[in-house]
Design goal:
By secondary structure, the protein is an alpha/beta fold. The chain has 9 helices and 7 strands; from the N terminus they run H-E-H-E-H-E-H-E-H-E-H-H-E-H-H-E. The longest helix is centred in the middle third of the chain and has 29 residues.
Length: 251
């Protein structure tokens, strides 16, 4: 991979960010925010039509884009995506890990263990998989990682569910281990914990919020501004954790 220089760190047009879960919601907004900041953006997601649509939006904004349809739960898909980024740009400077899932069945009395395994695989194991694959390249660029976690990953939230709460809480430890072990190489990880955000993800709640409730929530663009702040921070700055919630939110 390209070895970072002092000039590269101050040359926005040269930087590359890989956004997982980039086909909608926070991932899409983060891809567009990064593009507005001059980043070249690789967009991953399970739905090819949405991934290509977001890549087209990035290109329409004047930035370079690479559409990478695939499932972060599949090792072969993640490996192919990383190889495609290497072929296209030969470097990687940032990761935004926004892929996630939940279920309406959130209690010990109604949960399905296969479903629990899928949630943990998507929200935790897949994050570790992408980070591990990307780390050699991020060491070369002193890169930044933004792990899109949840308010439930910062503070216990009774309604979030067994599997979701466990998987998101574990992301805090994942980020801490990156920061503890990779500081010498300049790699930085941020545990980003959004509160209620008005996205399609709300459809996975046992009771889907009505329009009035959604109007008081954060927007994906609110979170994307924070993502770009972390990505654009100087190489000597590490943002360990960010919690962002709407004023109206209660535990």
């Amino acid at each position: 991979m390209h070895q970072v220089t002092a000039e590269d760190q101050h040359e926005p047009g040269g930087r590359v960010v890989w956004v997982t879960g980039g086909g909608s919601g926070i991932g899409r907004a983060s891809a567009l925010a990064a593009a507005a900041g001059g980043w070249r953006v690789a967009v991953s997601g399970r739905r090819p039509d949405r991934v290509h649509a977001v890549a087209q939006e990035v290109e329409a904004s004047g930035a370079e884009a690479l559409a990478l349809p695939g499932d972060v739960r599949r090792v072969e898909d993640v490996t192919k995506s990383a190889a495609a980024i290497e072929r296209r740009w030969g470097r990687l400077d940032g990761l935004v890990l926004a892929a996630g899932t939940n279920t309406p069945r959130r209690t010990w009395s109604d949960q399905d263990l296969d479903e629990l395994g899928d949630i943990v695989e998507t929200n935790l194991v897949s994050v570790a998989r992408v980070v591990q694959l990307a780390l050699p390249h991020l060491r070369s660029s002193a890169g930044a990682i933004v792990v899109v976690s949840s308010y439930a990953g910062w503070r216990f939230s009774p309604g979030a569910g067994v599997a979701y709460s466990a998987s998101k809480t574990a992301l805090a430890s994942l980020c801490e281990t990156v920061n503890a072990q990779e500081a010498a190489s300049g790699v930085r990880a941020c545990h980003l914990c959004p509160g209620d955000v008005d996205t399609d993800f709300l459809a996975q709640r046992p009771e889907v919020p009505e329009a009035d409730a959604r109007s008081a929530m954060l927007t994906p663009h609110d979170i994307a501004r924070a993502v770009r702040f972390v990505l654009d921070s100087p190489a000597y700055v590490r943002v360990d954790e960010l919690v962002i919630s709407p004023v109206s939110q209660h535990r």
